[in-house]
Structure formats: structure tokens, C-alpha cells
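REQUEST ID: PR-0412
SUBMITTED BY: lab tech R.K.
PRIORITY: routine
TASK: structure prediction, single protein chain
INPUT:
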Amino acid sequence: MSEQAIVTDIDIARINELYKKSKISELTPEEKEEQADLRKRYIQSVRANLKGMLNNISIKEPDGSITHLSEKHK
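STATUS: complete
OUTPUT:
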């Protein structure tokens, strides 16, 4: 997961479109593959964003010192 997946609004719209279509009828093998790829990229993007947010959190310890989560879990 070294490369960050960029997910655009168009990708999200396509994910939703494929999901809605799958509820009405069977997706083609190509559509299923596209759906799986888009979902994988979306999940990678969410994980990368969450990791970035967590790495910017600092904890104030009981002794008053500050611990940065990014340094604590290296």
C-alpha cells in the first residue's frame, strides 16, 4: 500500500452507480472487476487519510509531557 490511491468524485459516483445496478440486475464480469478495483482504491484512500489524521494526534501524558502518535508507533 505504498502508493496512495486517489479517489475522485467521479470514482465515487461510479461505485454508487455499479452498486445500484447490481441490485437491479447482474453485473458483467468487466463491471464486477471495475467495481472491485474502485472499492479497493477507495478503501486504500480511506486508510491513508485515517493514518494521516492519526499521525497528527498528540497525547498529553499524566506527567505533562506530549507524545506524538506518529513517533509512538514507529
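NOTES: Residues 55 and 66 are 14 Å apart (CA to CA).
REVIEWED BY: pending
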